[in-house]
Amino acid sequence: MKTARGALIEVIAVLATVVIFWVPLYFVFVNAIKNQQEASLLNLSWPSAVHLWDNVAEVVKARDYMLIRAFFNSAALTVLSIVVLVAVCSMAAFVIQRRVSKATPWINFFVLAGLIIPPAIVPTIWVLDGIGLYKTMTGLVLVEVALSFPFGVLLYRGFMATIPREVDEAAVMDGASGMKLFGRIIFPLLQPVTATIVVTSSVGIFNDFTNPLYFFPGARNATVQLTLYNFQSQFNTQWNLLFMNILLITIPPLVLFLIFNKKIVGGMTAGAVKG
Fold first, then answer.
1. Cβ(108)–Cβ(96) below 8 Å
2. What region holds the ABC transmembrane type-1 domain (predicted)?
């Protein structure tokens, strides 16, 4: 009885996955290879003629090759944000986990509050403009890091709790300073969690729409998600090109996620169970 019930639950889970993930992906793909007239019907039928490469070329050439500039901007934003995020979160988690004091509960409270409190757009713009970082890549990187900081700290801290303090003490007795202890001994042990944060945060930052829209405006500053506006208008939306654009900007994070799927699950499980 239990075996049959378990098999039924697995079948339902697989069907739900197909409906939630694969059907929308097929919908995007099949409409991306249609011409404008057939794509305007917005159905799941196969096109009478495949216009894959014609649509790809038109999307890439749109608005003076904006998609290529957008890929460069998104790649630069993602790489810079991940480098800063990993460095800041790992060091902050190391200090929070190792130095327990009366302020520790308050620090934990503020870290958790970062997961709950939504970002304030207008005050953030006012602050960035006041320090001269509004409409700059540096300002947008700081915003992305700030929004991903609580999640990264929690994962690092949970995994770091599994590293015995005797490792720290032995390194200090051998003359290692604080930075040397962290950089050469502790940080290399954090590879599972680092891989998890790199992949999950990369996908989130690469696919971010609202933050570049608010904090990094301008045609030359467009990221991949903002190129969706190229084929939308009030009176005539080019659905085939819009879906082709969605398909092109979906492929990189999808491939990244599929390649590192096991590392993501392993890192999050290690941090949750061992912490």
1. yes
2. 71-260
- Per residue in 111-130, pLDDT (tens digit) is 888 888 888 889 999 999 99
Query: How many structural domains is the chain composed of?
Result: 1
Closest CA to 165 of 100, 101, 103, 90: 100
Q: Which residues contact 126 (CB under 8 A, 6 or more apart)?
A: none
User: pTM above 0.90?
Assistant: no
* Closest to 155 in 3D by CA, of 211, 202, 85, 106: 85
- The string of pLDDT tens digits covering residues 36-79 is 999 999 999 999 999 999 999 999 999 889 999 999 999 999 99
pLDDT at 275: 42
d(CA 275, CA 158): 4
Contact 205, 82 (CB under 8 A): yes
What CATH number should be reported for the domain holding residue 128?
Answer: 1.10.3720.10
> Residues 250-274: what's their mean pLDDT?
67
- Is residue 155 one of the residues assigned to a domain? yes
CA dist list (Å): 46 to 15, 40, 181, 251, 255: 22, 13, 59, 21, 25
Beta carbons of 223 and 8 less than 8 angstroms apart: no
Q: Containing domain of residue 231, as a range? A: 66-274
Which residues fall within 8 angstroms of residue 25, CB to CB, at 6 or more apart? 250
Q: What is the pLDDT of residues 86-98, one digit of tens each?
A: 999 999 999 888 8
Average pLDDT, the chain: 86
